[in-house]
Design a protein that fits this description.
312 residues, alpha/beta, eight-stranded parallel sheet, 13 helices, 10 strands, globular
Amino acid sequence: MTATTPRFATDVITFYHPDFWDLPSADAVRDLALAQPERFWARVMDALVEAGVTGIELTFAPGDIESALRAFGSAPAFRRELAARGLSVVSAFIADSDAPGWRDGASLPAIVADGERRAAFLADVGAELLVAGLPMRTTFGTRPPFFVDAAYMTRMADIAHAVGEAVSHLGVKLAFHTESNSTLWYERDIDLFMALTDPRYVWLCPDSCHIALGGGDPVAVARRHTPRIALAHWKDAVKPIDVELTIDETVFTQQQPYMTELGTGIVDWQGWADAMSRTPGADTVLIELDEAADPVAALRAGTAVARKAARP
């Protein structure tokens, strides 16, 4: 893949499955992490070490920036705790649930300030990537209809430029994730947004699974946008989503049956690995496994698939 062996990473969501915690529900996991953040992070870090995965992407609660600060008091302290185990933060993901909305009335100053706050944490913890997504689509058939057109994408590009420029002063890159049922899902969405944004300030974080769920070709997307890929999410898909999902707070759960562990779905991993080897983000392989019941085993299996795909 590269001249040196890439580091393997994963999203903290990998560790959200209740079975991993011997708890009855996702709510119970969140409650535990809120009450005992040190215990939450100790278990996550121990599992990462056991799996041989050294990088993490922070995300929405309970594995978010605020949780790390509650557990360790500061970004430098969190960084030291990770480093003692040979671990590091790769990136942080901005989730819609805990950030100003890009489409529905939030002011640009609030959006930029939120990005700067997260970027400051990343700089202090030794990471360089802030990952964002574009707003979700609306359920097909909703009236009045919402169109992902040139005017909409131009507004999104303007916001992305403002945030990307602001966080660049902190040494952080802003990269956009290709989430299913979002306005950055189809190949056409990605191409349009990339065409409208300045490559100095806006990067791409393609997700192989989500692109495939939209009927797209993840490898083709990666090859078209190679110079702008700062990070990628390695994830497999069963098949494209073949129904119109209701886009509400349950949409992520509705998507789950279409996702699968690496090597058991439709993604061309050899093609993907080859494309990734040519990107600026080639030194990190982020295996994404949403809520794995046995995250250590799942991560080991995923890294094995990635290693095999990267062999010449």
